[in-house]
UniProtKB/TrEMBL annotation:
<dbReference type="InterPro" id="IPR014436">
    <property type="entry name" value="Extradiol_dOase_DODA"/>
</dbReference>
<feature type="domain" description="Extradiol ring-cleavage dioxygenase class III enzyme subunit B">
    <location>
        <begin position="4"/>
        <end position="143"/>
    </location>
</feature>
<comment type="similarity">
    <text>Belongs to the DODA-type extradiol aromatic ring-opening dioxygenase family.</text>
</comment>
<protein>
    <recommendedName>
        <fullName>Extradiol ring-cleavage dioxygenase class III enzyme subunit B domain-containing protein</fullName>
    </recommendedName>
</protein>
<dbReference type="Pfam" id="PF02900">
    <property type="entry name" value="LigB"/>
</dbReference>
<keyword id="KW-0223">Dioxygenase</keyword>
<keyword id="KW-0560">Oxidoreductase</keyword>
<keyword id="KW-0479">Metal-binding</keyword>
<keyword id="KW-0862">Zinc</keyword>
<dbReference type="GO" id="GO:0008198">
    <property type="term" value="F:ferrous iron binding"/>
</dbReference>
<dbReference type="GO" id="GO:0008270">
    <property type="term" value="F:zinc ion binding"/>
</dbReference>
<dbReference type="InterPro" id="IPR004183">
    <property type="entry name" value="Xdiol_dOase_suB"/>
</dbReference>
<dbReference type="GO" id="GO:0016702">
    <property type="term" value="F:oxidoreductase activity, acting on single donors with incorporation of molecular oxygen, incorporation of two atoms of oxygen"/>
</dbReference>
C-alpha cells in the first residue's frame, strides 16, 4: 500500500500561479504514474469528536466550504465515486483498535480533499473516502489513528 502526505488544498491553488499547483498537476506524469485503486483523504476541514469516515455509495458531493472567492469557484464539482468498501474497512479497523469510529453516509468531499485531487486526478474517476480529524485530541491520538490504519491495512491488503 503506497502512502503519501499531500498538503490540504487551498482553493487559491485553482486560481493562482503557485509551485505546489504545478507539482500536483504533474503528480501522475512525473511522480506516481499508476492510478491508485482507491484514495483515503484525512482532511483538517472535517472536525468530529471521534473518527468518522464518509461512506458514500454513489458519487461524492463537492463541499464548497470557503468564502469570498470568485463565483465560478462555487460551481466546480469533483464527483469522484465513493469508496464504500474502504470506508467500511477503515471503520472496522479503527473500531478493532479501540477507537469509537463512525460512518457518515451523506458527507461529501471538502475543499481540503477535492482541490488537490482535482489537480492530481482531474477525471474524478478514482473512488475516494474521507476521514475526519479530532481537534479535541492530541497529536498522539492522530498518530495512533493513522498508525493502526497503516499497519492493519498492510496486513489485510
Amino acid at each position: 500500500m503506497d502512502t503519501f502526505f499531500i498538503s490540504h488544498g487551498s482553493p487559491r491553488l485553482l486560481i493562482k500561479e503557485m509551485a505546489i499547483k504545478y507539482f500536483l498537476k504533474s503528480w501522475k506524469a512525473d511522480h506516481f504514474p499508476a492510478n491508485p485503486k482507491v484514495i483515503l483523504v484525512i482532511s483538517a476541514h472535517w472536525e468530529t469528536p471521534e473518527p468518522v469516515v464518509n461512506h458514500i455509495n454513489g458519487p461524492n458531493s463537492t463541499i464548497h466550504d470557503f468564502t469570498n472567492f470568485p463565483k465560478h469557484m462555487y460551481e466546480i464539482q469533483y464527483p469522484a465515486p465513493g469508496a464504500p468498501d474502504l470506508a467500511a474497512r477503515v471503520k472496522q479497523l479503527l473500531q478493532n483498535a479501540g477507537f469509537e469510529a463512525e460512518e457518515d453516509r451523506t458527507r461529501g468531499l471538502d475543499h481540503g480533499a477535492w482541490v488537490p485531487l482535482l489537480l492530481m486526478y482531474p477525471e474524478a474517476d478514482i473512488p475516494v473516502c474521507q476521514l475526519s480529524v479530532q481537534p479535541n485530541k492530541d497529536g498522539t491520538h492522530h498518530y495512533n489513528v493513522e498508525r493502526h490504519w497503516l499497519l492493519s491495512g498492510r496486513r489485510v491488503s
